[in-house]
Every structure is written in C-alpha cells, then in structure tokens.
Design goal:
This protein is an all-alpha fold. It is built from twelve helices and no strands.
C-alpha cells in the first residue's frame, strides 16, 4: 500500500504542477455554482432546503471532466516512454494502476469538499435532509470512481491523450445515457438488464438517501473491472516488449 500511495502522490503533484488540477477545480466550482445557485434551479426560491440541484449538475459536469483528467495518466507515460522507466522500479502493474486511480479520486474528493459551503448555506436556509446530502456526495464519489477506472482503461490502450479522452467518453456514454434509453425501450429480462447497467439508476437511488448493496456492488464492479483491464493491458504490453 505504501508504494501505491507514493505513486498516487506523484500523480497528484503532477496534476497541480501542470495546472490541470487548478483548471479542473475552477471550472467545476464555476459550473456547479452557476447552475446550482443562479441558473435554472433558483435554489433560494424553490421553498425546499435540498442539494439535489447541485448533485444533478455535478453528475453531468464530472462525466465530462473525469475523462480529461484520466486521458494522460497512462497514454502520456507510454508516448514519452516514462512508463518503462516507472515499471523498472520495485512496483508492479497493479500498484501503478491503483496509484494513478487514487490520485484522480483524491482530486475529485478535493473538488467535492470545496462545495461543502453549498451544504452549509442550504442547511442554514431550512431543514435539510442531512442523510440525503451525505449519500449524494457518496454517490458522486462512487460514480467518479467508476468513470476514473474507465478513463484509466481508455488511457492504457492508446498513446494519444485525445484518443483516450474520446474513448472514455464513448464508453461512459453507454452507462450515462444509452443503457437507460435501452431500458425504457425493452421489457422483460432485457429491460431489467439494461436498467441494472444504467448508472443513473444506481446514482439516483443513492442520492435519495438509500444505500442498497446492489448499488454498491454495481459501482465497485465497474471500478474493479476497469482496473483489472488496465493492468492486463500494461502486462500484455510488457510481455510483448
């Protein structure tokens, strides 16, 4: 675990050294703040103390921001040849992948932590459902973890950051939109399968304050599969080299 943390710190420092972290934080807070407080939701006038408007905006904002954060994690290392240097260190492929995964997840957690003033402000407006707020944040973290693992896999199979970004969006859009559309157009077993694959179904369940084992298994399964696939790509590449 120590080696994983060292890699995570290295990548987190790289985010801030390249200004990527600052740009992401400013844009995320700007978008979420604008659409939560000023445009569309009118949170001061809805007559209900709730952060559902913020969670809805963050659900879409993070969907686009996460591929931009993950696109360089492995693609840039492969393009520049530094991945070979990294793998000559006393670390294995799994530790590299997990370390990079946690670095991005920590950055997302920092971004979400900076929105806690939204929570404090709304709580002072009226009686807020504190449980729903915390499960909403949990849902955003689980969703982010899922898309980070998908982004890592996309970055691992390409030497081009833009290709990694677009591939992560392409895969993510199935979980974000397409499976939900298919679930509404199919009945029976097929409809149930597509409904289970639809990420919004699980996110909305958690953000309403309901923590179901099936939802946790869903998100953790995507994370695990994404990390395993990323590791297998690195391992296969090492064998070929």
């Amino acid at each position: 675990m120590k080696k994983v943390w060292i890699i995570a710190r290295r990548e987190l420092s790289a985010f801030f050294d390249s200004l990527m972290a600052y740009i992401m934080l400013v844009l995320f807070l700007g978008f979420s703040g604008f659409f939560t407080w000023l445009y569309g939701s009118d949170i001061f006038f809805v007559g209900q103390a709730s952060l559902q408007a913020f969670f809805s905006i963050a659900y879409w904002t993070l969907f686009f921001f996460i591929p931009a954060l993950t696109m360089r994690l492995l693609a840039e290392e492969k393009r520049s040849g530094t991945i070979e240097l990294l793998l000559t260190k006393p670390v294995n492929d799994w530790q590299v992948v997990v370390g990079k995964f946690f670095s991005t997840l920590i950055l997302i957690a920092i971004a979400l932590a900076l929105t806690l003033p939204y929570y404090i402000t709304v709580a002072n407006i009226g009686n807020i459902d504190h449980g729903a707020v915390w499960t909403g944040y949990l849902g955003l973290l689980l969703m982010s973890a899922s898309y980070i693992s998908i982004g890592l896999f996309s970055s691992s199979i390409s030497n081009n950051q833009i290709v990694g970004f677009l591939l992560a969006l392409f895969i993510g859009i199935f979980f974000h939109i397409i499976f939900g559309v298919l679930a509404g157009n199919f009945t029976g077993v097929a409809g149930q399968i597509f409904n289970y694959l639809d990420l919004s179904t699980h996110f909305e369940s958690i953000s309403r304050g309901v923590i179901d084992t099936a939802d946790l298994v869903y998100f953790l399964s995507i994370v695990f599969i994404g990390l395993i696939l990323s590791e297998s790509v690195l391992t296969k590449r090492n064998v070929v080299d």
